[in-house]
Amino acid sequence: MDNPKKLLTFIIINIVSLWGAAILFPQHVVLGNSFLPFLLAGGLSSVLLTGFSLLAESLMKGILKSENVSGPLGVYGWLSQSIGVWLIARGASVTGLGISSYVVAILLGLTLTFLQRRAKPLFRE
What we know:
Helix content: over 70%
Radius of gyration: 15 Å
Mean pLDDT: 85
Strand content: under 5%
Largest sheet: 2 strands, antiparallel
Number of domains: 1
Strand order of the largest sheet: 1-2
Number of helices: 5
Number of strands: 2
Low-confidence stretches: none
Order of helices and strands: HEHHHEH
């Protein structure tokens, strides 16, 4: 990513969203384990999620450009966010992020995509 301010903004959006989900829906989203406290687990999970999302976005842009396939990039962003949340939650003993089901991953992915898309106009030049 060529804009470090954009990267930092996305990490902050992910941190706040994960913390908010864990506070508002503690029966579905859990941050922290015996090794990672609540705040550190949210930070680590959000950095991993941001990295996964950037990787997926660059891959999808390359595929869509080479295949000449048109489609809303927001849907691909939502899918990559949802898959990223689900994969990071599968490693809960390492990342400290736990979710109750794949539906939570889909809803978190949708929320994260919406918030990140709302922040993108801040970085247009």
